[in-house]
Protein backbone atom coordinates (compact mmCIF):
# COMPACT_ATOMS: atom_id res chain seq x y z
CA UNK A 1 0.00 0.00 0.00
CA UNK A 2 1.37 3.40 -1.01
CA UNK A 3 1.30 5.98 1.75
CA UNK A 4 1.13 8.82 -0.78
CA UNK A 5 -1.69 9.13 -3.31
CA UNK A 6 -1.07 11.38 -6.33
CA UNK A 7 -4.83 11.25 -7.00
CA UNK A 8 -5.72 12.62 -3.57
CA UNK A 9 -2.96 15.23 -3.79
CA UNK A 10 -4.35 16.40 -7.13
CA UNK A 11 -7.86 16.57 -5.68
CA UNK A 12 -6.60 18.65 -2.74
CA UNK A 13 -4.85 21.06 -5.09
CA UNK A 14 -7.89 21.44 -7.35
CA UNK A 15 -10.22 21.92 -4.39
CA UNK A 16 -7.96 24.48 -2.72
CA UNK A 17 -7.69 26.46 -5.95
CA UNK A 18 -11.43 26.37 -6.60
CA UNK A 19 -12.48 27.32 -3.07
CA UNK A 20 -9.75 29.94 -2.62
CA UNK A 21 -11.29 33.13 -1.26
CA UNK A 22 -14.61 31.50 -0.32
CA UNK A 23 -15.82 31.02 3.26
CA UNK A 24 -18.31 29.28 5.52
CA UNK A 25 -21.44 31.10 6.65
CA UNK A 26 -20.28 31.60 10.23
CA UNK A 27 -17.59 30.77 12.73
CA UNK A 28 -17.97 29.86 16.39
CA UNK A 29 -14.43 29.45 17.71
CA UNK A 30 -12.51 32.26 19.36
CA UNK A 31 -9.63 33.67 17.35
CA UNK A 32 -6.31 31.89 17.88
CA UNK A 33 -4.44 35.15 17.32
CA UNK A 34 -5.05 38.89 17.48
CA UNK A 35 -6.90 39.96 14.36
CA UNK A 36 -5.82 43.36 12.98
CA UNK A 37 -8.34 46.15 13.47
CA UNK A 38 -10.86 46.28 10.67
CA UNK A 39 -10.23 42.71 9.61
CA UNK A 40 -12.67 39.81 10.03
CA UNK A 41 -11.52 36.25 10.60
CA UNK A 42 -13.65 33.80 8.61
CA UNK A 43 -13.58 30.04 8.15
CA UNK A 44 -12.27 29.01 4.71
CA UNK A 45 -14.45 26.58 2.78
CA UNK A 46 -11.39 24.35 2.56
CA UNK A 47 -11.61 23.68 6.31
CA UNK A 48 -15.00 22.03 5.80
CA UNK A 49 -13.87 20.15 2.70
CA UNK A 50 -10.85 18.77 4.54
CA UNK A 51 -12.91 17.69 7.56
CA UNK A 52 -15.29 15.80 5.26
CA UNK A 53 -12.49 14.08 3.37
CA UNK A 54 -10.60 13.13 6.53
CA UNK A 55 -13.77 11.56 7.97
CA UNK A 56 -14.21 9.52 4.80
CA UNK A 57 -10.58 8.41 4.92
CA UNK A 58 -10.75 7.47 8.62
CA UNK A 59 -13.81 5.34 7.88
CA UNK A 60 -11.66 3.24 5.53
CA UNK A 61 -12.77 4.31 2.06
CA UNK A 62 -10.65 4.03 -1.07
CA UNK A 63 -8.54 6.79 -2.59
CA UNK A 64 -11.17 7.57 -5.24
CA UNK A 65 -13.77 8.24 -2.54
CA UNK A 66 -11.37 10.38 -0.51
CA UNK A 67 -10.44 12.36 -3.61
CA UNK A 68 -14.13 12.87 -4.42
CA UNK A 69 -14.73 14.03 -0.86
CA UNK A 70 -12.12 16.77 -1.31
CA UNK A 71 -13.95 17.79 -4.50
CA UNK A 72 -17.51 17.28 -3.30
CA UNK A 73 -18.52 20.96 -3.55
CA UNK A 74 -16.57 21.86 -6.70
CA UNK A 75 -19.28 21.03 -9.25
CA UNK A 76 -22.04 22.47 -7.06
CA UNK A 77 -20.51 25.80 -5.96
CA UNK A 78 -19.14 28.63 -8.04
CA UNK A 79 -15.68 29.97 -7.24
CA UNK A 80 -15.09 33.53 -6.07
CA UNK A 81 -15.20 34.69 -9.71
CA UNK A 82 -18.69 33.14 -10.16
CA UNK A 83 -17.30 30.55 -12.55
CA UNK A 84 -18.59 26.98 -12.77
CA UNK A 85 -16.43 23.87 -12.92
CA UNK A 86 -17.41 21.64 -15.84
CA UNK A 87 -18.02 17.92 -15.34
CA UNK A 88 -16.05 17.14 -18.51
CA UNK A 89 -13.10 19.06 -17.14
CA UNK A 90 -13.17 17.09 -13.90
CA UNK A 91 -13.18 13.80 -15.83
CA UNK A 92 -10.10 14.95 -17.71
CA UNK A 93 -8.28 15.90 -14.52
CA UNK A 94 -9.17 13.19 -11.99
CA UNK A 95 -11.02 10.54 -13.96
CA UNK A 96 -14.60 9.37 -14.39
CA UNK A 97 -14.74 7.26 -11.21
CA UNK A 98 -14.08 10.29 -9.00
CA UNK A 99 -16.34 12.55 -11.07
CA UNK A 100 -19.28 10.13 -10.83
CA UNK A 101 -19.03 10.30 -7.03
CA UNK A 102 -18.82 14.09 -6.98
CA UNK A 103 -21.73 14.38 -9.40
CA UNK A 104 -23.86 12.12 -7.19
CA UNK A 105 -23.53 14.48 -4.19
CA UNK A 106 -23.89 17.74 -6.14
CA UNK A 107 -27.14 19.67 -6.00
CA UNK A 108 -28.71 21.16 -9.10
CA UNK A 109 -29.07 24.73 -7.86
CA UNK A 110 -30.52 26.24 -11.05
CA UNK A 111 -33.35 25.17 -13.34
CA UNK A 112 -33.21 24.97 -17.15
CA UNK A 113 -33.91 28.71 -17.41
CA UNK A 114 -31.09 29.55 -15.00
CA UNK A 115 -33.38 30.46 -12.11
CA UNK A 116 -32.34 29.56 -8.57
CA UNK A 117 -34.32 26.54 -7.35
CA UNK A 118 -35.96 26.42 -3.93
CA UNK A 119 -34.09 24.88 -1.01
CA UNK A 120 -36.71 22.15 -0.55
CA UNK A 121 -36.76 21.14 -4.21
CA UNK A 122 -32.98 20.89 -4.29
CA UNK A 123 -32.85 18.78 -1.15
CA UNK A 124 -35.64 16.44 -2.25
CA UNK A 125 -33.80 15.76 -5.51
CA UNK A 126 -30.55 15.27 -3.59
CA UNK A 127 -32.12 12.63 -1.35
CA UNK A 128 -33.76 10.90 -4.31
CA UNK A 129 -30.45 10.74 -6.16
CA UNK A 130 -28.75 9.11 -3.16
CA UNK A 131 -31.04 6.09 -3.47
CA UNK A 132 -29.26 4.96 -6.63
CA UNK A 133 -25.90 6.63 -6.04
CA UNK A 134 -22.68 4.63 -5.60
CA UNK A 135 -22.09 3.63 -2.00
CA UNK A 136 -18.97 5.77 -1.88
CA UNK A 137 -21.11 8.82 -2.66
CA UNK A 138 -23.37 7.94 0.29
CA UNK A 139 -20.28 7.89 2.51
CA UNK A 140 -19.33 11.37 1.31
CA UNK A 141 -22.87 12.61 1.90
CA UNK A 142 -22.98 11.24 5.45
CA UNK A 143 -19.62 12.83 6.21
CA UNK A 144 -20.71 16.15 4.70
CA UNK A 145 -23.95 16.27 6.68
CA UNK A 146 -22.13 15.14 9.82
CA UNK A 147 -19.67 18.02 9.69
CA UNK A 148 -22.32 20.57 8.73
CA UNK A 149 -24.61 19.52 11.55
CA UNK A 150 -21.79 19.31 14.07
CA UNK A 151 -20.80 22.88 13.13
CA UNK A 152 -24.39 24.03 13.56
CA UNK A 153 -24.57 22.38 16.97
CA UNK A 154 -21.32 23.96 18.14
CA UNK A 155 -22.70 27.38 17.15
CA UNK A 156 -26.08 26.75 18.75
CA UNK A 157 -24.43 25.57 21.96
CA UNK A 158 -22.76 28.99 22.12
CA UNK A 159 -26.17 30.62 21.74
CA UNK A 160 -25.58 31.89 18.20
CA UNK A 161 -28.71 32.40 16.12
CA UNK A 162 -27.53 30.64 12.97
CA UNK A 163 -30.96 31.09 11.36
CA UNK A 164 -30.73 34.90 11.25
CA UNK A 165 -28.34 37.26 9.55
CA UNK A 166 -25.84 39.12 11.73
CA UNK A 167 -22.64 41.09 11.17
CA UNK A 168 -20.07 38.82 9.50
CA UNK A 169 -22.51 35.91 9.54
CA UNK A 170 -24.96 34.63 6.93
CA UNK A 171 -28.14 32.89 8.01
CA UNK A 172 -28.69 29.29 7.01
CA UNK A 173 -30.95 28.88 3.99
CA UNK A 174 -33.61 26.94 5.94
CA UNK A 175 -34.91 26.85 9.48
CA UNK A 176 -34.49 24.14 12.13
CA UNK A 177 -37.49 22.04 11.07
CA UNK A 178 -36.28 21.85 7.49
CA UNK A 179 -32.71 21.15 8.55
CA UNK A 180 -33.89 18.32 10.78
CA UNK A 181 -36.01 16.84 7.98
CA UNK A 182 -33.11 16.91 5.52
CA UNK A 183 -30.55 15.29 7.77
CA UNK A 184 -32.98 12.58 8.83
CA UNK A 185 -33.87 11.97 5.17
CA UNK A 186 -30.19 11.54 4.23
CA UNK A 187 -29.71 9.18 7.17
CA UNK A 188 -32.77 7.14 6.18
CA UNK A 189 -31.79 6.77 2.54
CA UNK A 190 -28.28 5.71 3.55
CA UNK A 191 -29.85 2.64 5.16
CA UNK A 192 -30.63 1.36 1.66
CA UNK A 193 -26.89 0.91 1.06
CA UNK A 194 -25.15 -2.07 2.60
CA UNK A 195 -21.53 -1.46 3.58
CA UNK A 196 -20.12 -1.95 7.06
CA UNK A 197 -18.08 1.25 6.72
CA UNK A 198 -21.33 3.23 6.66
CA UNK A 199 -22.40 1.94 10.09
CA UNK A 200 -20.24 4.23 12.27
CA UNK A 201 -20.89 7.15 9.91
CA UNK A 202 -24.65 6.71 10.33
CA UNK A 203 -24.26 6.44 14.11
CA UNK A 204 -22.26 9.67 14.23
CA UNK A 205 -24.84 11.55 12.16
CA UNK A 206 -27.68 10.17 14.29
CA UNK A 207 -25.94 11.47 17.40
CA UNK A 208 -25.62 14.97 15.92
CA UNK A 209 -29.26 14.91 14.76
CA UNK A 210 -30.33 14.18 18.33
CA UNK A 211 -28.14 17.00 19.65
CA UNK A 212 -29.59 19.38 17.06
CA UNK A 213 -33.15 18.46 17.98
CA UNK A 214 -32.38 18.94 21.66
CA UNK A 215 -30.70 22.32 21.16
CA UNK A 216 -33.70 23.51 19.17
CA UNK A 217 -36.15 21.99 21.70
CA UNK A 218 -37.75 19.88 19.00
CA UNK A 219 -38.01 16.68 21.06
Keywords:
Hypothetical protein af1432; globular; 219 residues; single chain; mainly alpha
Protein model, in words:
By secondary structure, this protein is mainly alpha-helical. The chain has one domain (6-30, 37-215): Hypothetical protein af1432 (Orthogonal Bundle), CATH 1.10.3210. The chain has nine helices and no strands. Helix 1 (6-19) runs parallel beside helix 3 (63-70) and helix 3 (63-70) packs across helix 5 (96-104). The radius of gyration is 17 Å and the shape is globular. It starts with 5 loop residues before the first helix and ends with a helix. The model has no long low-confidence stretch (mean pLDDT 95).
Describe the secondary-structure layout.
Blueprint: H1 6-19, H2 45-58, H3 63-70, H4 87-94, H5 96-104, H6 119-131, H7 135-157, H8 176-190, H9 198-215
Helix pairs in contact: 1-2, 1-3, 2-3, 2-7, 3-5, 3-7, 4-5, 6-8, 7-8, 7-9, 8-9
Write down how many β-strands occur, each being a DSSP E stretch of 2 or more residues: 0
| CATH top level assignment | Mainly Alpha
Provide the CATH architecture: Orthogonal Bundle
Uncertain segments are none
In short:
With 219 residues, this protein is mainly alpha-helical. The protein is built from nine helices and no strands. 32% of the residues are buried.
Amino acid sequence: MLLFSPLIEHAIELSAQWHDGTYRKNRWRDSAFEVPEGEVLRVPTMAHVTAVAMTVQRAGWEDEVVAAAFLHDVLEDANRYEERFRREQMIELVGEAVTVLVDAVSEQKHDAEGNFRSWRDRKEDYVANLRTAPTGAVAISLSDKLHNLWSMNESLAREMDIFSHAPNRRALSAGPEQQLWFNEAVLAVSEQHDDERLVPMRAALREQIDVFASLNRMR
